[in-house]
Amino acid sequence: MPNGPVLALRGISKRFGAVQALTDIDLEVHAGEVVALVGDNGAGKSTLVKSIAGVGPADEGVIEWQGKSVQVTRPHDAQELGIATVYQDLALCDNIDVVGNLFLGREILRAGVLDEVEMERRSRELLQTLSIRIPSVRIPIASLSGGQRQTVAIARSMLGEPKLVILDEPTAALGVEQTAQVLDLVERLRDRGLAVILISHNMADVKAVADRVAVLRLGRNNGIFDVKTTSQEEIISAITGATDNAVTRRKARSGEVAK
């Protein structure tokens, strides 16, 4: 299925005790596509991302990877498939330089000793390939701007040559110029043929880089929209519940949706 989705979620549900966090979620992401995942606080975005990343496996439903059903019960499963997740906290070490952060946990050894020369060479090559500009690969992360830190975290996720990258609020708390740097990088990932899931509260960012927008509301699908043909107001209406998508209305009529 060369034209099929890289990732397809079918009927994903997740419960925490008495709380139903996700109910019957469907989502598809194709290669060379940015899908924005949006919704109000408590909509289920983080829970869905954790299900994909293997951090909090779904209770029900099917995950398909390149057309085949797969089990993702731990982060290693997702990484082996080619799923990379960059969380909002970035998980960078401020006192370590860019090279050290890029290869943290996957250091290159030669005769039992860190091969600093090779790691630096690969770091420069990776950043150049992604058109990421920083003062030096030997500068401590603490000396970089928020936008530069975000691009380094995204670059680190590329070392495993993933096919899908999940970005959790990558522009949160960034200034205008830094946000532009990150969004440019998101577009470059798409141009390289990667599938990208972008979690964001910023509608301007979503409209700038996303191809489609998937709206979650109260743990359910509430519409998937083409960015080019959908207004920002329509998307916000789906987020707030001012409008429900056809699937939700149909399920409500059949009594499947709890009031």
Automatic annotation (TrEMBL):
All residue ranges annotated as the ABC transporter domain in the record: 7-243
Record-linked InterPro entries: AAA+_ATPase (IPR003593), ABC_carbohydrate_import_ATPase (IPR050107), ABC_transporter-like_ATP-bd (IPR003439), P-loop_NTPase (IPR027417)
PROSITE patterns associated with the record: ABC_TRANSPORTER_2
A molecular-function term among this protein's GO annotations: ATP binding
Keyword annotations of the record: ATP-binding, Nucleotide-binding
Recorded superkingdom: Bacteria
PANTHER family tied to this protein: CARBOHYDRATE TRANSPORT ATP-BINDING PROTEIN MG119-RELATED, SUGAR ABC TRANSPORTER ATP-BINDING PROTEIN
The protein, known as: ABC transporter related protein
Organism: Streptomyces violaceusniger (strain Tu 4113)
